[in-house]
Structures are given as structure tokens and as C-alpha cells.
């Protein structure tokens, strides 16, 4: 592909189905958005039958809440994408780490580092 970094892998690794990121206590991905009831969307472990769902979060969709349903659906999709996004952030951090000594502007790296920390993942600096 044009524009790829010369050391980038052939395809990105976004398999969050294995285990939580090292140092993380969150439920392993992948997660999915389901709509078991009219008044809420549920974020659950993906690829499981309904009776085996482990609920991660729920987003209310009733009219008495402040968000329209379209916003609730967008929020639910963002939450469901969290394990994949975290896996990519961790991979990108590892990819950028050797470049720190060469790159004078480290702001992107530290923004990424803080986003990972916000997710509650402890990073082994060694």
C-alpha cells in the first residue's frame, strides 16, 4: 500500500479476542452491540449465543433520556470498538517507541500513551 511505514506489518493486528491487554483488567474483546430490549442497547461479548452473553454496558434509548437514539447507537458502537481500539493503540505505541530518540516532536506518542493509561492499562516500561 502507498504511504505505509517501511517497517509496518503487512496487515494490522486488531485481534482483541485473545486476552485483555497486559496490565488490563477489562473483559476481553471482541464486543458487540445488541438490542435485546426496546429501551436500551447492550454491549456484550461478541460471537456468543444470547443465553451466554456477558454484559459489558448498557445504553438507554428511552425517550425520557437526553440523547436521541442515533446518538445512543453511536455511543454503543464506540464502546463496543474499545478493545480493538486499545489493541491498536498498544501496537502503535510499540511501533513508535524506537522512534522516540529520533523524533523531536513526541507529542503524538505521549497523547497515545495517556489514552492507553486512561483505559486503565499499566504499561511495562522495561
In short:
The protein is built from three helices and three strands.
Polypeptide structure, described:
This protein has 126 residues and is α+β, with helices and mostly antiparallel strands. It has two domains: 22-80, no CATH class; 83-119. Helices cover 31% and strands 15% of the residues. The protein has helices spanning 69-80, 82-96, 107-118, and strands at residues 31-37, 40-45, 55-60. It has a three-stranded antiparallel β-sheet, covered by helices on one side. Helix 2 runs antiparallel to helix 3. The longest helix has 15 residues, at 82-96. It is elongated and about 55 Å long. The two termini are 33 Å apart. The model is unreliable at 1-20 (pLDDT under 50).
Attribute tags:
single chain, 126 residues, alpha+beta, three-stranded antiparallel beta sheet
Strand content: 15-25%
Written as H for each helix and E for each strand, in order along the chain, the element string is: EEEHHH
Rough outline: elongated
Uncertain stretches of 5 or more adjacent residues: 1-20
Percent helix, as a range, is 25-40%
Side by side, the strands of the main sheet go 1-2-3
Main sheet record: 3 strands, antiparallel
Number of domains: 2
Average pLDDT for all residues: 75
Number of helices: 3
Task: State the separation between the terminal residues, measured CA to CA.
Answer: 33 Å
Supply the helix-strand structural class.
Answer: alpha+beta
Radius of gyration: 18 Å
Total strands: 3
Amino acid at each position: 500500500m502507498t504511504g505505509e511505514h517501511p517497517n509496518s506489518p503487512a496487515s494490522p493486528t486488531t485481534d482483541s479476542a485473545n486476552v485483555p491487554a497486559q496490565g488490563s483488567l477489562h473483559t476481553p474483546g471482541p464486543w458487540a452491540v445488541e438490542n435485546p430490549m426496546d429501551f436500551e442497547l447492550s454491549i456484550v461479548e461478541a460471537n456468543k449465543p444470547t443465553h451466554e452473553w456477558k454484559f459489558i454496558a448498557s445504553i438507554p434509548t428511552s425517550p425520557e433520556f437526553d440523547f436521541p437514539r442515533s446518538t445512543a447507537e453511536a455511543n454503543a458502537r464506540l464502546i463496543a470498538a474499545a478493545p480493538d481500539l486499545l489493541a491498536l493503540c498498544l501496537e502503535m505505541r510499540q511501533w513508535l517507541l524506537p522512534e522516540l530518540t529520533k523524533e523531536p516532536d513526541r507529542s503524538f506518542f505521549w497523547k497515545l500513551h495517556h489514552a492507553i493509561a486512561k483505559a486503565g492499562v499499566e504499561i511495562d516500561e522495561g
